[in-house]
What does this fold into?
Amino acid sequence: MTSLDNEILNLLTALDQQGALKHLVIIGSWVTLFYKDYFKDPNYHPAIRTTDIDFLVPKKPPHNLNINLPKLFGQMGFLEEFTTDGWVTFHKPELHVEFLWPRIGQHSDKPKKIPELGINVRPLRFMSLMARETIHCVYHGIEVTLPHPVVYGIHKLIISTRRPKDFKRDNDRQQAELVLTSISDPKDIALLQRIYKALSKSEKAAITKAITDRPLLQEFFK
It folds into this structure.
C-alpha cells in the first residue's frame, strides 16, 4: 500500500470506530478502487488516485447520534478550515476531506448544519440519486457505502459536460467508462436502463454529448 492508501485506510478506520462511517456515502474517484469488491473481476484495474476524498451525508442522521468530527480530525492531524460560504473542510498535506449534502431546489446553497456530526456541510446538485441508490463493499475489512456503479457512471457523464477544464472533463468520462463497462449483471443493466429512462431531457442530452467519442459507452445508451 502507498502512503496515500494508508491515509485513506486510517481515515476510514477512525470514522468506522466512531460510528460515523455507516451514516456516510463515499463519493468521488476513490469509489473506483472500492468497486473492486463489487465487481470481483481480475481485469478491473482502477488507476485513478487523488488526494481528495468526499463524503456525502445522504440524509439527516439519527437525533441521538453525537459525534464530534472536528475533534476526531484534529486528533488525526487534520486542519479544520471553513470556506467563505461557511462549510467545513479538513486538510493535511496527504489528504483533503469534504462533506456534502444533496442540494434540492434552486435556493439551497447555504451550508447544511449536521449537529449530530458537529459539522456544516456543502450542498451540491446531482447528489440525490447517489444518495438513494447505494451498495455496500468491504475495503480491508471495513464496510463502506458507495453509490451504485450504474449511478456513479451516469453521474460522471452528466457532470462532465459542465466541466470547463478538459482534464477534469476527460477524467470524469474515463471513470464512467471504467465503471460502466465493468457491469455485467443483468440486474445492473436493468437498473441502468430504468435510471436512464427516468432522466430529464437535458440530462439525456448531456449523456449523449459525453459519449460522442466513446463507442464502448454508446453501447449502453442505445
